[in-house]
Amino acid sequence: MTQAGKTTPKLEEVEQGCVLYNLDPIIMKYHYEVDYIHSYAQDSPFFAGLSKGQLMGSKCTKCGSTFATPRSHCMNCGEPTEWMDLPLEAKVHTYTTCYFGGEEFLAETPFTLILVEWPGVDTFFLSRLIGVAPEDVYIGMPVKAKFRRLSQFKPTDVYFVTE
Which sign does the torsion angle of CA 39, 66, 161, 108 carry? Predict the structure, then answer.
């Protein structure tokens, strides 16, 4: 189509679509993929540690507060922290059974998430408990950290099992 000698631009039509589940409201499924470049920045030592079978937290250089989930500065006084090794043995502080999960855990549902505690560490660490039926988990249960053999440099590289 032309107007005063100009061609009207058109979008290219492609034969790809989605699966339509419902019309009102519209609910559909379509494939989505993206490459994402991400930096762990100051948290890089934590993820490098996971790849070597090491669990690292942080400790305040001023007040001595300790954090199972590492942070660059203290939550209590704001001063910088330094890296510290966490023991691989711990206890379950609390837990929940998840019957729905994101793509990463879909094949594992139901799965158990635990808050891990260590003596002398001021915060907890969230992770999965593997190999224990949900009805057999209890507060105070001794657990041990295990690591993926082939690290993906993700928080899911560490998980816990019973000792």
Answer: negative
- pTM of the predicted model as reported, rounded to 2 decimal places: 0.77
67-122 tens-digit pLDDT: 999 999 999 999 999 999 999 999 999 999 999 888 878 888 899 999 999 999 99
CB atoms within 10 A of CB 68: 21
Residue 29 and residue 64: Cα distance in Å, rounded?
50
Contact between 113 and 134 under an 8 Å Cβ cutoff? The reply is no
From the list 104, 128, 108, the residue with the least C-alpha distance to 116 is: 128
The 10 Å Cβ neighbour count of residue 58 is 26
Looking at residue 29, what DSSP letter applies? E
As given in the structure block, the two tokens for residue 79 are 């001063």
Backbone angles phi, psi at 63, to 5 degrees: -95, -10
DSSP 50: H
The structure tokens listed for 128 are 């999965």
